[in-house]
Write a structure and sequence with these properties.
The chain is of the alpha+beta class. It contains 21 helices and 27 strands. The longest helix has 29 residues. The radius of gyration is 27 Å and the shape is globular.
Length: 730
């Protein structure tokens, strides 16, 4: 989709559409200013308002999912602006096209188009058009700080500061070079005079802002690199924070849904009478593949829904099973017709070389659920030809557009109110979920506000899962323990070769994708493809190390480029994780390193077995290079959360299918790691100065392979299929 839009946008320029593009971009910026300006505030470059009371407001195009990125964005803006931190606030940007995230669009285009050099020089007006055409207001892809912050907020802050200085120079009648800025003031040291930003804002907002202002060097930072308190924490502690599930409107009703248990199935028939007989139930609404019960409260709606006996078709998917999917993937590999190939070097020659020792292993990974804390809950009200929706979504603008389409309304008749999200990990992206469409259709059929809540059972069985996937990896070793060839034949819905770098320095590498899809909806899951491919690569590199009789850390070192960021991270992790030091009997130490979202993370994990044979993780030491750390305390929390989630999925989580339907339904049979089982975690960062990487996701991928490798060191038994608890006892 993004690649196609990129090409369309380029064609518009070639075809003489540049004037129209610039006009549309200017109109969008004017619309944003009109929505955020006021008698006491003035808009700068869409995302910033400076009040005449000196208040600095950042309109964030990212949603708070608990990741703390809005505070980081404020730090980046405030640092370049030289703002008074005590007067900085962050609010959600409106879910309107004028607030489509252009800096994010440029970053995503560079990564996904395959033409980063071209994207870097595209005019902002063109990128703005492309971004608006995609309704891009996404929170995901570990993109907030590295794209919106680095390419947007820092630039806007620096450019706005220059406009304020120029305005002050005219007011004071002095050269701009004699002025400095600090704490939201422009200062003329020679005369002892100063002007607050609020007094300059109205005039400065009329200036054309510099498109490429000089940004601060790290030694000049005041906020970047410091653990500033997060803006979102106080409300979450005192209970005043409002999530989608907390919404209450006058005369509101509550609804819940039952969808086809087999994905692809349709609603054949349903008798509404049993639900209507439940006290408080007011309406039963039929949708294409689901039935919705509307009542005065949630428990009445749920009781009414459970009283129904809807009949659904199976969409031709009634024979699909977990075992069958793996069998289909094996057949695709056997047919030897990959859908995509990446890598270089002569694989066949290396495999046939005299003295080459061939090693091969198969790995299998299940569907994974997002297991977010807050179930889906959106509230909608259709009145006088307009539709309003309240709730937490990872792309409010795309959600608004989806709701408009479902309701049959023009976009300007729909308002989406973004709210806090109680967990997501990729699940609340509108392209992977049905609730936006459902709540819009339901709201169009009732005269009052209605909150649609998915029961936990519905949320588990109707997920947009991480894909079930498998890999067969084969490598050739020389007598002195060097890898000469590596071939990974992996089966899953999407090609992952561009997303997940293969950074080991080998003579021949082949990564072949075999496309396999099932009836399940699959989507972005925390760290996306890096979680599977991190497990495949780092598990197999460990197997090769042991086959070669070489220490796993030393084996990795000899296959990494000298002086590389990867080698620096690996060596620091081994040092801080105590690699090579003695451990108690029955305890093993494993290591893994994965790159994702331009961030490199390595784990050293210590693990043993409980009395019942289940794995017990004792300690994880993580070293992370994300280029620049904006908020160290929050960065540490993100890595810790990724580690715990990665261990949880490795040990106990899996979505399995039988007769086309998901077998799990709640946390009683979808096993997540408990607090009592979480290990000690020690996180360290390397500020390498490389291009900024993400942090919400990269802490997760090394967790599973580092644990599996630790268990091998402890027991001598390999883990090649997850989750561990579903296999024979280690």
């Amino acid at each position: 989709m993004i690649r196609r839009t990129f090409l369309i946008g380029g064609a518009a320029v070639v075809g003489g559409g540049i004037f129209a593009i610039k006009y549309a971009d200017s109109s969008a910026r004017s619309a944003a200013a009109a929505m955020t300006d006021g008698k006491s505030g003035h808009n700068f470059a869409t995302w910033l308002r400076i009040g005449e009371d000196d208040k600095i407001t950042l309109f964030s195009p990212h949603i708070d999912i608990g990741q703390g990125s809005n505070t980081g964005l404020a730090q980046m803006l405030a640092d370049e602006l030289d703002a008074d931190w005590a007067k900085v606030e962050v609010v959600s940007a409106p879910a309107e096209s004028a607030f489509a995230n252009v800096p994010l669009g440029r970053g995503f285009l560079a990564e996904m188009s395959g033409y980063p050099g071209i994207v870097a020089v595209l005019p902002t007006s063109l990128v703005s058009m492309i971004t608006r055409s995609l309704d891009l207001q996404i929170t995901g892809g570990s993109s907030a700080l590295r794209f919106t912050g680095q390419k947007g907020m820092r630039v806007i802050g620096a450019a706005t500061r220059l406009a304020l200085v120029d305005t002050a120079a005219k007011r004071l009648g002095v050269p701009a070079a004699e002025l400095t800025t600090a704490d939201s003031k422009v200062i003329h040291a020679k005369s002892g005079r100063s002007l607050p930003y609020g007094a300059l804002a109205a005039e400065a907002a009329t200036h054309s802002l510099a498109s490429a202002p000089t940004l601060k060097q790290p030694k000049e930072f005041r906020f970047i690199g410091k653990s500033m308190p997060r803006f979102d924490i106080p409300a979450k502690i005192n209970g005043s924070a409002q999530y989608g599930i907390d919404v209450i409107k006058p005369d509101m009703r509550v609804a819940t849904v039952i969808a086809a248990p087999i994905r692809g199935g349709k609603l054949v028939s349903v008798d509404p009478a049993p639900a209507m007989a439940v006290a408080g139930v007011e309406k039963v609404i039929k949708l294409d593949s689901a039935v919705v019960v509307v009542a005065k409260g949630y428990w009445q709606a749920l009781k009414g829904a459970r009283a129904l006996a809807p009949k659904f078709s199976d969409g031709g998917n009634g024979a699909i099973s977990t075992a069958g999917i793996f069998a289909d993937q094996d057949k695709l590999r056997s047919a030897n017709k990959p859908d995509g190939t990446a890598g270089s070097g002569d694989i066949d020659a290396a495999f046939k070389a005299k003295g080459a020792r061939l090693v091969e292993a198969d790995y299998r990974l299940p569907f994974l659920h997002h297991a977010m804390m807050e179930p889906f809950a959106l509230t909608a009200h259709h009145k006088d030809g307009t539709l309003e929706i309240w709730g937490g979504m990872q792309d409010p603008l795309a959600s608004k557009m989806g709701a408009a389409k479902a309701a049959g309304l023009a976009p300007d008749r729909v308002t989406f109110h973004p709210m806090l999200i109680g967990g997501s990990f990729g699940r609340r992206l509108p392209m992977y979920m049905e609730i936006v469409d459902q709540v819009a259709r339901v709201a169009m059929q009732v005269p009052y506000p209605v909150k649609l809540i998915w029961a936990r059972e519905e949320e588990v069985t109707q997920g947009a899962y991480r894909p079930q996937s498998s890999a067969r990896i084969k490598a050739a070793l020389t007598a002195d323990g060097k890898i000469t060839a590596w071939q990974n034949d992996y089966a899953q819905p999407e090609d992952a070769s561009k997303e997940v770098p293969f950074f080991y320095d080998l003579p021949a590498v082949s990564r072949r994708h075999f496309k396999q899809v099932s009836n399940q909806t699959v989507g972005a899951w925390r760290s996306v493809n890096a979680t599977q491919h991190g497990f495949y690569t780092e598990s197999f590199i460990d197997e090769l190390a042991h086959a070669a009789g070489v220490d796993p850390f030393e084996f990795r070192k000899r296959h990494l480029k000298p002086g590389s960021r990867h080698l620096a991270v690996l060596e620091q992790a081994a040092k801080l994780g105590g690699w090579g030091t003695p451990l108690p009997a029955g305890t093993g130490r494993g290591i893994a390193i994965v790159e994702s979202f331009n961030t490199i993370a390595a784990h050293v994990t210590e693990a043993t077995l409980n009395d019942d044979g289940s794995p017990k993780v004792i300690k994880v030491t993580a070293v992370v290079d994300c280029g620049t750390v904006v908020n160290p305390r929050n960065a540490e929390a993100q890595v810790m959360g990724g580690i715990v989630m990665g261990l949880s999925t490795a040990i106990g989580e899996a979505i399995t299918l039988d007769k086309g339907a998901v077998q799990q339904s709640n946390f009683s049979d979808y096993t997540v790691l408990k607090l009592a089982d979480a290990p000690a975690i020690d996180v360290h960062f390397i500020n390498s100065g490389a291009d900024m990487g993400g942090l919400g996701e990269p802490g997760l991928p090394p967790a599973a392979p580092a644990l599996a490798n630790a268990l091998f060191a402890a027991t001598g038994k390999r883990v090649r299929q997850l989750p561990i608890l579903a296999q024979a006892k280690v």
